[in-house]
Amino acid sequence: MLKIGCHLSVSGGFLNMARTALEIDANTFQFFTRNPRGGKAKALNEKDISAFIDFTREHKIADFVAHAPYTLNICSDKENIRQFTVETFEDDLARLEHIPGCMYNFHPGSHVGQGLEVGIDLIASALNQLLRPEFGTIVLLETMSGKGSEIGGRFEDLHEIIDRVEHSDKLGVCLDTCHVHDAGYDIVNDLDGVLTEFDRVVGLNRLKAIHLNDSKNSIGARKDRHETIGNGYIGLEVFRRIINHPVLRELPFILETPNELPGYAEEIMLLRGMWVG
Ligand code: FE
Ligand code: FE
Ligand code: ZN
User: Of 48, 142, 149, 194, whose CA is between 20 and 30 Å from 122?
Assistant: First the structure.
């Protein structure tokens, strides 16, 4: 069965979020670990978590993705911002140990003029500080559009980070279709070529999740503006190929399209209808 879902709000609790997923026929989903601006996280409610675990097992909802607050920057040029980011990630990772089968996705960060090499070094050393061999959670680096001084717009960036991390068995990659397209990878005309390149540079064994978004901008625009499925520069036929591709079809697909729940439900129905079981 196609594993597909969307970004959901956890503000009503974990069980509530899983119920919402079921209502829109999602069997996976993503949520922010806290306010995207990086505010304090709500304390985990043990009863809610255990009901969530039971409910998701019963309804075969799995491969959850917790998304780190994207306004933080683990490779900032300011020591206090780096420190705050590491502390936030540390707290998130400790909490996620209570949610089996949940991955942790983050944006590698922006080097803000320090240069790619310095940025990559800062990201890797933060990960070396954060990752513990006993962690159950897999940490995902997201492919980025490369806007501004963003790191992760090239597969090489991700490889270099992973290469410098000691417990790299805890690391994976989440490929965002809008981001890679905006970064200049031609998934429209040469999906196989892009995946071959990903395999050569990073390794397909690292690929753990897909963010399924169309793009409001043309290839290589380095903009990162998501569009609803089929209504952007990527187009519906490419999404049909992506979800059915032999090396991708078993991965969890998460929609981050500009939608409310009814729009997400429609996209999930559309994509389920296109998946060849
Ligand atoms: Fe993201
Ligand atoms: Fe994304
Ligand atoms: Zn994005």
Answer: 194
The string of pLDDT tens digits covering residues 131-149 is 999 999 999 999 999 999 9
Catalytic member of 91, 256, 266, 272: 256
Q: How far apart are the C-alpha atoms of 114 and 103, rounded to whole Å?
A: 29
Ligand 3 center to residue 138 CA distance, Å?
20
| 142 counts as catalytic | yes
Does 211 participate in catalysis according to the annotation?
Answer: yes
Q: Is the pLDDT of residue 36 over 90?
A: no
140 CA to centre of ligand 2 in angstroms = 11
**39, pLDDT greater than 80:** no
Query: How many angstroms separate the CA atoms of 169 and 167, rounded?
Result: 5
Interval between CA 143 and ligand 2 midpoint (Å):
8
Catalytic residue among 34, 82, 107, 111: 107
Please, are residues 202 and 234 in contact by the beta-carbon 8 Å criterion? no
Question: Is 121 assigned a catalytic role?
Answer: no
The 10s digit of each residue's pLDDT in 235-273 is: 999 999 999 999 999 999 999 999 999 999 999 999 999
For residue 65, how far is its CA from the centre of ligand 1 (angstroms)?
10
Mean of all residue pLDDT scores within the chain: 97
pTM of the predicted model as reported, rounded to 2 decimal places: 0.98
Strand pairing category for 226-227 and 102-106: unpaired
Is residue 167 annotated as a catalytic residue, yes or no? no
The tokens describing 178, both together, are 């809008």
Contacts of 65 (CB under 8 A, 6+ apart): 28, 29, 30, 31, 102, 103, 104, 105, 140, 174, 209, 252, 254
C-alpha span between 245 and 239 (Å, rounded): 10
